[in-house]
């Protein structure tokens, strides 16, 4: 499917707040052309995650935030993980704001009118909570091993992909390393999981530069390479 944020802003010229239900209504109404048919080639698509969150809400009878709390946050004891969208009236005191460096100063570069959509983003967390999430995946608290293995299995497509992707994970090396990065207004993050040796790198940045995160990433990769020799 098309990337919804480019399509909503550049094609439909809509600047007011968009949530998941309205996004689905717009897709149903305008029927934007597919980028490719299933099985043809890989394209990372935030719209797919937005649609999945609506499916989860319909099946569970709960909002995305409620479901996340019930099935993941509370059982794993995550203390600083939550959903925050642009129309929520109150933000936790600990919430960080996205920043952008311009003309020698850091300026707020945070939520937009598209940040009512959930499924592809708007989850706030900490390095400590994400490490608990990583450990829960490793010890089977979240998903059964067979299902997790399926998530780490590359999708089969006709066109050779530039990025090898499973279910929610970039597969850097089959059975050895998976990762996922993410960026949005004022944020750049990275999550790398060494499946072979059990190491994890989590870097979170509320600045658009993100240089330090990638320097840490490079050091992590070099350290893992030495271990595997």
- Radius of gyration over alpha carbons? 19 Å
* Largest pleated sheet: 4 strands, antiparallel
CATH topology: Beta-lactamase
CATH superfamily: DD-peptidase/beta-lactamase superfamily
Unreliable sequence segments: none
Named CATH architecture = 3-Layer(aba) Sandwich
Please state the average pLDDT score. Answer: 92
SSE pattern, N- to C-terminal:
HHHHEEEEHHEEEEH
The total tally of domains equals 1
General form? globular
Structure description:
The chain has seven helices and eight strands; from the N terminus they run H-H-H-H-E-E-E-E-H-H-E-E-E-E-H. The strands form three sheets. The chain has a four-stranded antiparallel beta sheet, with helices on both faces. A two-stranded antiparallel ribbon has the order 1-4. The chain has a two-stranded antiparallel ribbon with strand order 2-3. With 229 residues, the protein is of the alpha+beta class. The mean pLDDT is 92. The chain has one domain (4-228): DD-peptidase/beta-lactamase superfamily (Beta-lactamase).
């Amino acid at each position: 499917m098309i990337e919804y944020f480019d399509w909503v802003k550049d094609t439909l010229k809509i600047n007011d707040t968009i949530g998941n239900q309205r996004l689905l209504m717009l897709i149903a109404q305008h029927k934007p052309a597919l980028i490719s048919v299933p099985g043809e080639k890989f394209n990372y698509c935030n719209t797919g995650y937005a649609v999945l969150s609506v499916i989860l809400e319909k099946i569970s009878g709960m909002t995305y935030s409620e479901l996340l709390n019930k099935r993941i946050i509370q059982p794993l004891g995550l203390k600083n993980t939550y959903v925050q969208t642009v129309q929520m009236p109150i933000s936790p005191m600990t919430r960080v704001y996205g920043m952008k460096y311009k003309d020698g100063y850091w300026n707020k570069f945070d939520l937009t009118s598209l940040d009512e959509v959930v499924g592809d983003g708007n989850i706030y967390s900490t390095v400590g909570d994400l490490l608990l999430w990583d450990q829960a995946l490793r010890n089977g608290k979240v998903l059964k091993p067979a299902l997790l293995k399926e998530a780490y299995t590359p999708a089969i497509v006709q066109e050779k992909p530039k990025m090898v992707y499973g279910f929610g994970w970039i597969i850097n090396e089959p059975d050895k390393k998976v990762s996922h990065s993410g960026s949005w207004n004022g944020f750049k993050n990275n999550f790398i999981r060494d499946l072979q040796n059990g190491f994890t790198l989590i870097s979170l940045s509320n600045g658009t530069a993100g240089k330090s995160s990638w320097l840490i990433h490079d050091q992590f990769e070099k350290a893992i390479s030495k271990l595997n020799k």
